[in-house]
Design brief:
With 561 residues, the protein is α+β, with helices and mostly antiparallel strands. 18% of the residues lie in helices and 34% in strands. It folds into three domains: 128 residues, Galactose-binding domain-like (Jelly Rolls); 103 residues, Immunoglobulin-like (Sandwich), CATH 2.60.40; 287 residues, Alpha-Beta Barrel (TIM Barrel), CATH 3.20.20. The strands form seven sheets. Strands 23-24-25-26-27-28-29-30 form an eight-stranded parallel barrel, surrounded by five helices. The protein has a six-stranded antiparallel β-sheet with strand order 3-2-4-10-6-7, with no helix packed on it. Strands 1, 5, 8, 9 and 11 form a five-stranded antiparallel β-sheet that branches. Strand 20 and strand 21 form a beta hairpin. 45% of the residues are buried.
Length: 561
């Protein structure tokens, strides 16, 4: 299941789920001559009893049957963390980062018959990997998200970008279709669209050989109903491509969109002009039965538990999420803060040029691929990185400017733990604090958040909304004791209660995200990671198997107010 809805009616798309051949190769660079294992795709190799903590390279292989001469493109929603893709022995794609999708180049003139697809996957931590490092979550190995093959024409629609606006009492939208011509001659292209029951007109365009063109149109939609947390109205947007005067469309692309606006005025966050307060969780894609390769059923379970707790928001800590989960958020009306993949990195690490390069690629892939989700109302970057240094500030500046260039319809933020030493508040639209009173410090949550408001006003964030982006404490499931000592469920519930009591009583707070929704596996390592008992971050409101802790009822009490 690539998405929760059908994305094409003309273009043929076949999903490649199932068992693939698999062989671990350590640090070898050669394709194996034989394979001794079978591995499910999507899936994480750590779920196989032979590879519970394997860190290295693994090779996946399967055969494909093509029935007629055609062109094909391979679609990968996530490979952890580095992929090299070979079609009949020829490399057709390379990609770094587990959490953003990618496609192969268009493979032309594929003959009928059997063809071999090989994917070399690497989840090692090495000098070339500046985003996947030993961290407070686990980097699994494998083809962790769905894979598909598209039978596609040389001139095709790459993506659609939908931008709603509300003016003079009715909804409008700008729509841009990005069309690619991989052929050897120019093509005359006519696009036709439908948004729900409303036809969409595009001007014809001449696209030169090898060129990419964005074809833009606008429209008014007086009968459109807004998307919001309480009324998550969605519309099917389909665009068809007609080439060189042909009467039959040769390609199409379907998106699912919603009409909503996001603003930050008067120190608050607005959706469709109404102030909102975000009440949600930080969530890792991690489960002991599937690793990071979530099936739909477990996504729904997480969603239902968050809704049961009274949540209206989720932060995709600390990487772009599986797009099917974002589809669920669209359907259920859950507000999303989606962020790029960079967590807890000091300036020494960030100085490596590859760090910024990899962040910029991640940002572009995140925004371009997830642009049309109405549930995403905030883009975030660089969680707990060096926003307290001049060098770091230039990297924050470049990344935030890049995202603004890609999308001007959503506010931007980053989560900081540098308190009064942060120097990047002037760059963001929303100021977000990761603070852990009553756990890492003995500070009073109310007094601390009032101080945080003062830092915001003094350091460039005056008049901007404030979010408490992380707070919480460890609670080991089943560890209950009247002493309420650290690590008990009782102490965790006390910490969550004192924090939520402070934040929900302060009208200047626009959001709060508990760290975290579920316990998760972390990388086994020395330093501060050595302190993670059982190589697990245990600050979840539910445990790794989604069993609620005592704090769950505390959250319901405040989130359902």
């Amino acid at each position: 299941m690539l998405r929760l809805f059908r994305t094409n009616e003309i273009r043929q798309v076949i999903e490649l789920e199932g068992d693939w051949d698999f062989e671990p190769i350590g640090q070898d660079d050669s394709i194996p001559a034989s394979y001794h294992y079978r591995m499910p795709v999507p899936g994480c190799w750590e779920m196989n009893p032979r590879f519970p903590s394997y860190r290295g390279k693994g090779v996946y292989r399967r055969t494909l049957t093509v029935t007629e001469k055609t062109a094909v493109r391979l679609v990968f929603k996530g490979v952890s963390h580095t992929a090299q893709v070979y079609f009949d022995g020829v490399e057709v794609a390379q990609h770094y980062n587990a959490y953003t999708p990618f496609t192969s180049r268009l493979i032309q003139e594929v003959e009928p018959g059997e063809h071999e697809l090989v994917v070399v996957v690497d989840n090692t931590f090495h000098e070339g990997s500046k985003l996947h490092i030993a961290n407070d979550y686990y980097t699994y190995g494998g083809i962790i998200r769905p894979v598909g093959i598209e039978y596609i024409q040389p001139v095709y629609i790459e993506r659609i970008q939908f931008v709603p606006s509300y003016e003079n009492g009715q909804w409008h939208a700008s729509m841009a279709a990005v069309v690619i011509n991989t052929g050897s001659t120019s093509a005359r292209v006519q696009l036709q669209g439908m948004l729900g029951e409303t036809p969409i007109r595009f001007e014809a365009a001449e696209i030169q050989a090898g060129a990419t063109t964005s074809i833009v149109t606008t429209g008014s939609f007086p009968n459109a109903e807004a998307w919001s947390n309480g009324s998550p109205n969605l519309y099917k947007l389909q665009v068809q491509l007609f080439r060189d005067g042909e009467q039959t469309a040769s390609d199409d692309l379907i998106e699912r969109v919603g009409f909503r606006t996001v603003t930050t005025a008067n120190g608050r966050i607005q959706v469709n002009g109404e102030d909102i307060v975000l009440k949600g969780f930080n969530r890792h894609e991690d489960h002991p039965m599937v690793g990071a390769a979530f099936p739909y059923q477990l996504m729904v379970q997480d969603m239902e538990l968050m809704l049961e707790a009274g949540s209206n928001a989720v932060r995709t800590s600390h990487y772009p999420n599986d797009e099917r989960f974002l589809d669920l958020c669209d359907e259920r009306g859950i507000y999303v803060w989606e962020e790029n993949h960079a967590r807890g990195l000091d300036i020494e690490h960030m100085r490596d040029p590859r760090f910024q390069e990899q962040c910029l690629v991640c940002n572009q892939e995140m925004v371009e691929n997830h642009y049309n989700h109405p549930s995403i109302i905030i883009w975030g970057i660089l969680n707990e990185c060096s926003s307290n240094t001049p060098e770091g500030k230039e990297m924050y500046r470049e990344q935030l400017a890049q995202i603004r260039g890609l999308d001007q319809s959503r506010p931007l933020t980053y989560a900081t733990h540098h308190r009064e030493h942060d120097i990047c508040f002037d760059l963001a639209d929303i100021i977000s604090f990761n603070l852990y009173p009553q756990w890492y410090t003995d500070e009073d949550p109310g007094e601390l958040v009032d101080r945080a408001r003062g830092w915001t006003e003094e350091l460039g964030g005056a008049g901007k909304p404030i979010i408490m982006s992380e707070f919480g404490g460890d609670g080991f499931y089943g560890m209950r004791d009247a002493s309420r000592v650290r690590g008990t469920e009782e102490r965790q519930a006390d910490i969550i209660e004192s924090n939520l009591a402070a934040y929900t009583s302060r009208p200047y707070i626009s959001g709060m995200f508990i760290w975290q929704f579920c316990d998760c596996r972390v990388v086994e390592d020395l330093g501060w990671l050595f302190s993670r008992a059982g190589t697990q971050n245990s600050k979840g409101i539910v445990d790794k198997y989604r069993r609620p802790k005592l704090a769950f009822e505390v959250v319901k009490k405040y989130f359902r107010q």
